[in-house]
Amino acid sequence: MAKTYRIAVIGGDGTGPEVVREGLKVLQAAAEACGFAYETTDFDYGGQRYLASGGDPEKPTVPVITDDEVRALKAYDAIYLGAVGHPKVAPGILEKGLLLKLRFDLDQYINLRPVKLYPGVECPLADKKPEDIDFLIVRENTEGLYSGMGGVQYKGTPHEVATQIMCNTRRGVERCIRYAFEACTRRRDKGLLTLVAKTNVLTYAHDLWYRTFMEVGEEYPDITKDYNHVDACCMWMVKNPEYYDTIVTCNMFGDIITDLGAMIQGGMGIAAGGNINPEGVSMFEPIGGSAPKYTGQNKINPLAAIGALAMLVRELGEEEAADRIEAAIAYVTATKLGSLAAGKMGCTTSEVGDLVAEAVAKGLKP
Ligand code: IPM
Ligand code: MN
């Protein structure tokens, strides 16, 4: 008998649960169309539960998720996450206590963020078409400036000293770069992998990245090894996005350039990502936040969450289902939606989910 995939669902805060609900509709349609079985388990981790369990809104006083709860998630084949961020909880508590904790403790060392302009989507860059904006950003996801190392002394005095260490390990850098070479090979696009870093200033940390990139690159003679400083990359992403195939970069730069990437693909309503542990359990999420002001209004765009679901299904090995979902998203953006912005789509959140699910069932393409 075929395997039944076990999927952990964390709706999270704000509009997270609403967009995840639409993603799960699409999952059902894809499973029926492609003949695979799955079961989902809901988890209530997030700001609401943190406050209900007595957590202080200003500083972390109780775990947002416990070590045992994280361990239990390892029994699943994938995690589907809505959004993290609650208006009543101070910034940092949920991000560190839930999102970053899951990424770190589950060793999801890759953050995979495709930048893809779907047909019919308005692009803020003049004259750029879907064929011009289609590349993949591989962001390191467990170290760099996110390592949490550093400290503060003499806080609140004129002598305050604050450090935040950019921690790079050979192992961490190498496994990320290796993943990127493999991902670039799988894409069968231009065979161009661009390392995005800042070797002219970060002469220790990014020298390690550069040397590792060149060394690992020797194992991939068919891939062109390319390098951009991160500031120049921002320029080219706006001016010549068609140049890129696959980008590999550190955690912090990846955070920043993937928001730029999200904008040139039509905004946070469509940008999807995956936190990948190729040897463990991976977690998929829309990259935008919890959009609290739209909570419960049926106005938020679920396409980013649906795109994340397509990535989840692909990681499970259900390629045909993933292709079908991506084609269905393209069909809906090309033919049904006015805009991708919340409240301006010309459809409600649940109507967009219905349209994509129906397109998946019928196998529609743009
Ligand atoms: C992202 C987010 C997170 C990050 C925050 C919420 C910690 O911006 O997923 O890009 O910086 O990685
Ligand atoms: Mn970000």
Computed over alpha carbons, the radius of gyration is: 20 Å
The sequence of SSEs as H and E is EHEHHEHEEEEHEHEHEHEEHHH
The amount of helix comes to: 25-40%
Query: Overall pLDDT, averaged?
Result: 97
Shape: globular
Tell me the structural class: alpha/beta
Question: How would you summarize the topology of this molecule?
Answer:
Blueprint: E1 4-12, H1 16-34, E2 37-43, H2 47-52, H3 67-73, E3 78-83, H4 93-105, E4 110-116, E5 134-140, E6 150-153, E7 161-164, H5 170-187, E8 192-197, H6 205-217, E9 224-229, H7 230-239, E10 246-249, H8 251-264, E11 272-276, E12 282-286, H9 303-315, H10 319-335, H11 349-362
Parallel strand pairs: 1-2, 1-3, 3-12, 5-10, 8-9, 8-10
Antiparallel strand pairs: 4-5, 4-11, 6-7, 11-12
Helix pairs in contact: 1-9, 1-10, 1-11, 5-6, 7-8, 9-10, 10-11
Would you kindly provide a brief summary of this structure?
With 366 residues, the protein is α/β, with parallel strands linked by helices.
What labels would you give this structure?
366 residues; alpha/beta; ten-stranded mixed beta sheet; two-stranded antiparallel sheet; 11 helices; 39% helix; globular; binds 3-isopropylmalic acid; binds manganese (II) ion
Plain-language structure description:
This protein is an alpha/beta fold. Helix content is 39%, strand content 19%. The protein is built from eleven helices and twelve strands. It has helices at residues 16-34, 47-52, 67-73, 93-105, 170-187, 205-217, 230-239, 251-264, 303-315, 319-335, 349-362, and strands spanning 4-12, 37-43, 78-83, 110-116, 134-140, 150-153, 161-164, 192-197, 224-229, 246-249, 272-276, 282-286. The strands form two sheets. The protein has a ten-stranded mixed sheet with strand order 2-1-3-12-11-4-5-10-8-9, with helices on both faces. Helix 1 (16-34) packs across helix 10 (319-335). The model has no long low-confidence stretch (mean pLDDT 97).
